[in-house]
Amino acid sequence: MRRRTLDLLRCPSCAASSLVPDADVAEPALIFGPVRCLGCRRTWPVHEGLIDLAPERANATGLQQAMELPWVARSWERYVRPAVDAVLTRGQLDRDSEYVAMRSMLGAPPGPVIDLGCGPGLFLKKLVRDLPTVHVIGVDVSRPMIEEAMAQFRELQLAADFVRAEAPPLPFLDASLGGVLASGMVHFVADLDGLLAEARRTLKPRGRFVASTYDATGGVKRLHQSAGLHPRSEDALKASAERAGFIRFERIRTGPVLVWSAELP
Ligand SMILES: C[S@@+](CC[C@H](N)C(=O)[O-])C[C@H]1O[C@@H](n2cnc3c(N)ncnc32)[C@H](O)[C@@H]1O
Ligand SMILES: [Zn+2]
């Protein structure tokens, strides 16, 4: 992984210190081996472009279990996501329109951008191509999803670094990021307030949090909640963003799907 990605990371164990290469190499541009926390001295594995900051994570529950199956990761872009999109939006919002909406809400990010819950990298690939001068990093808790993304990046000869981590927290230093993009991810997170508080901590002034998610009511909502998902209304998203200190809440709604953004002062 690239040194400039390592320089953004914060140790998830002691939540205080920076990570440095474990090997005794002066200022390497690329990191191949483990990295060490300057505070608690804990080491974290690095393989190719992936740093694993969730090595001892317990097994996933609910629908997240599916996100951690290799066959779902491999078929996500071609089969699974289109099926989910068709059910949620009844064909009203295709993935390209979703990306265009999110990209325009992201604006001109004042620093590195993370694709949180990047999955196999559908939007990460677009970001890397659209923002060639911006440092873009993929973050996901699912190892098979990141492995699929890395395979696709190798095949397409695109470069990105990947961080395996379960949010919240976000394993980045304070005020280190210019944008957080999270497509189809926030409804997997029970603690949205906690996630947005972390986005607030890690974003620079004027940095934006941009997400796509969906709303549901009544029995459908309860059914989804029983599968470990957290559909939320526009009002709930806005209130959570405001509690975290974000301003300028914007949203585009297509059926139950909400593409929304909020900005730091
Ligand atoms: C529905 S997929 C969306 C993938 C991709 N962003 C897209 O739009 O096609 C949700 C992704 O979020 C990841 N995810 C879920 N909860 C997460 C968490 N707490 N921290 C990091 N990633 C998470 C899952 O592993 C999965 O890859
Ligand atoms: Zn530490």
Describe, in short, the structure shown.
With 265 residues, the chain is an alpha/beta fold. The chain has nine helices and twelve strands. It has a single domain, classed as Rossmann fold, CATH 3.40.50.
What number of structural domains do the residues give? 1
Q: Given the helix and strand composition, which structural class is it?
A: alpha/beta
What would CATH call the architecture? 3-Layer(aba) Sandwich
Low-confidence segments, ≥5 residues, pLDDT <50?
A: none
Described by the principal axes of the CA atoms, the overall outline is globular
Radius of gyration: 18 Å
CATH superfamily: Vaccinia Virus protein VP39
Would you count the extended β strands for me?
12
Relative helix content? 25-40%
**Number of H- or I-type helical stretches:** 9
Cα distance, first to last residue? 32 Å
Features:
single chain, 265 residues, alpha/beta, Rossmann fold, 9-stranded mixed β-sheet, 35% helix, binds S-adenosylmethionine, binds zinc ion
